[in-house]
Amino acid sequence: VTAVAPARFDSALEALRTVFGYDAFRGEQAEIIDHVAGGGDAVVLMPTGGGKSLCYQIPALLREGTGIVVSPLIALMHDQVDALVRNGVRAAYLNSSQAPAERADVERRYLAGELDLLYVAPERLNTESTLQLIGRGRIALFAIDEAHCVSQWGHDFRPDYLALSGLAERWPDVPRIALTATATDATHRELTERLSLGGARHFVASFDRPNIQYRIAPKSEVRKQLLDFIRTEGRDADGRPVSGIVYALSRASTERFADFLRQNGVDAVAYHAGLDADVRRRAQERFLREDGVVVVATIAFGMGIDKPDVRFVAHIDLPKSVEGYYQETGRAGRDGLPATTWLAYGLQDVVQQRRMIDESPGDLAFRRRLSAHLDAMLALCETVSCRRQNLLGYFGQPSEPCGNCDTCLVPPASWDGTVASQKLMSTIVRLQRERNQRFGAGQLVDILRGKQTPRVEQHGHDRLATFGIGQDLSDAEWRGVVRQLLAQGLLQSVGEYGVLTLTDASAEVLSGERTVALRKEPDRPVRSSSRRSA
Ligand code: ADP
Ligand code: ZN
After folding, report:
1. Which run of H or of E encompasses 139?
2. Alpha-carbon dihedral of residues 85, 88, 93, 98, nearest 10 degrees?
């Protein structure tokens, strides 16, 4: 015998106050909830921290039956459900990590109409047995969280999401709401189409996070830079340490940097998926409950973690996409108070990521997609205009310069790098034509600067016509030139050793048809004096 979970509340506001203890809806929450509770389909684009969860949780409480929530973050289901249960919501989940007895109990409660919300992993929802199970109960709505995962061009594609369009065919009368915090125009269109949400109403919130200050700096001595950053940004007005997250690409570097910070008096803990579950949990607990803990983590950290007063997010490696960068930096300042984000990136990041793309197992289309993501990220790093404007523009939202990012606060000078680019490019051409050799940035800079290193002598590079023609720029400036040319697609880095070669566009620079504007490396850091409230 199956039964139907009754509607728990008459009005959305009553549910908001009684269950969640909040006074008022934020942004478009009320409209979204009304629309879905009334049986409409919705596509919701809202930044992290915007309050997406209530947009499906409350309609599920207002409608008869159980809201089915598709979420890819299995690791978080347990916590999400726990939090709901603490608020008196009858919630449970089904995923592959469960023991059979536990699963059977959830199934029984669902069929008995004892659940308001049921979280389901996407791969579960692709099995006929699960579909039949939910078909035997009453479905209040389908919520598809992290809906950008259906986009093959997005940064987080999950094949299991593709089958979710089947829900519309099977249950045409059940309202569906798709939600995501990362949506460019292209992803937005793609998810609408792939999830058969052509008839849905679209709610697009502003992606601006005005209280976040964005800073991006060229990497020189990253340890010292990070420590300087934490020493200036890591304290509140009373001098007490604040909570922050430092993102690194590799597990090993999270541990190295956490050690380094601890040795320098910062209360830092490492976090990555390779650590013991216990160690991880302890790190997370400390971060959540204590003030002033800095977590040095891979991007595995932060998803679903709801800590409103993270005061800074630092990246010591280049994120792979603007979407990822936006999502990770978005974990700062969810309470609306001023927060700072800082990214250090260098030539090595570009070379390393190009190599990872070259070596990735996907097909050509897949590698092109990764490349396009990296290019957009590099363009954000090298922009001479407002970071926020660039970021919002990427998400299809026009805006004015913000006055609260590093390029607004200390406008970078640009300089005519055409001649420098020609010197570098002709060195590459000569090495290739005259010697059939290819080298990475280090050797090229040594040649341009006219350094008599053992490697220069060994190869006789001091006999090249371009030897020593670049003494007007420093090593760091030359590396900046290389990095920016890579970012602009005027050079490419190939293979394991990051040897540099020309691109089709380089020819226009060499022939003088095209000029190259470069960003001057900043010589003074941006300070936090600009902190202002939202
Ligand atoms: P998202 O999923 O969009 O990242 P969440 O749904 O996790 O955001 O909400 C972020 C935080 O904001 C949570 O702590 C949530 O409880 C809180 N929140 C959401 N809506 C409201 C509201 N109307 N009033 C106050 N706090 C809210
Ligand atoms: Zn700006």
Report:
1. strand 139-144
2. 40
Residue whose entry in the numeric block shows the structure tokens 């290389």 = 482
Residue 373 DSSP SS3: helix
- With pLDDT > 70 as the criterion, what percentage of the chain qualifies? 96
Whether the pLDDT of residue 260 is over 90: the answer is yes
Distance CA(313)–CA(214), nearest Å, equals 10
Mutate to test the pocket of ligand 1, among 54, 71, 180 (most ligand atoms within 8 A of CB): 54
Q: How far apart are CA 216 and CA 344, in angstroms?
A: 6
Q: Kindly report the average pLDDT of the chain as a whole number.
A: 91
Please give the average per-residue pLDDT across 161-183, as a whole number.
92
Q: 48: Cβ below 6 Å to ligand 1?
A: yes
Q: Evaluate the CA torsion angle 21, 44, 379, 351 in order and state its sign.
A: positive
Rounded CA separation 16/22 (Å): 6
Cα gap 107→98, rounded to integer Å? 12
Residue 221 beta carbon below 6 angstroms from any ligand 1 atom: no
Listed as own residue / partner, the contacts of 85-89 with beta carbons closer than 8 Å and 24 or more positions apart are 87/19, 87/20, 87/21, 88/19, 89/19, 89/57, 89/61, 89/116, 89/117
Contacts of 265 (CB under 8 A, 6+ apart): none
Collect contacts of 444-451 with beta carbons under 8 A, ≥24 apart.
444/478, 444/482, 444/500, 445/470, 445/475, 445/478, 445/479, 445/482, 448/423, 448/424, 448/473, 448/478, 449/473, 449/475, 449/478
In sequence order, which residues have a C-beta less than 8 Å from that of residue 214 and are 6 or more positions away? 329, 341, 387, 388, 391, 404, 405, 406
Rounded alpha-carbon distances, angstroms, from residue 131 to 1, 101, 165, 234, 447? 18, 19, 13, 49, 65
Beta strands in 290-447 (DSSP E): 294-297, 310-315, 339-345, 414-416
Counting ligand 1 atoms within 8 A of each CB, the residue from 16, 23, 25, 26 with the most, and so the one to mutate, is 26
Q: Is 415 in the pocket of ligand 1 (CB under 6 A)?
A: no
Phi, psi dihedral angles at 197 (to 5 degrees): -110, 30
**Residues for the chain: how many in total?**
534
For residue 423, the number of C-alpha atoms closer than 13 Å in the C-beta half-sphere is: 22
Whether the CB of 142 sits within 6 Å of ligand 1: no
Helix (H, G, I), strand (E, B) or coil at 162: helix
Going from the Cα of 15 to the center of ligand 2, the distance in angstroms, rounded, reads: 39
How far does the chain reach from its first CA to its final CA, in angstroms?
54
**Which residue from 160, 26, 22, 20 is spatially nearest to 89, judged by alpha carbons?**
20
**Lowest-confidence range among 64-68, 417-421, 490-494?**
490-494
